[in-house]
Amino acid sequence: MLKKMIAVGLSSLPMMAMAHPGHTHESSFWTGFSHPFTGLDHLMMAIAFGVLLWSATQRWKVAGFFGLAAAMIAGFFLGQLQVLPNVFAEYGIVLSLAVVATALLMKSNRIFAVATMVLASFHGVAHGNELGQSGHMLQLMLGMVSAMSIIYLIGLGLGAFTQKYLPQGRKIIAALAAILAVIGLA
Question: Could you tell me the pTM of the whole model?
Answer without folding.
Answer: 0.75
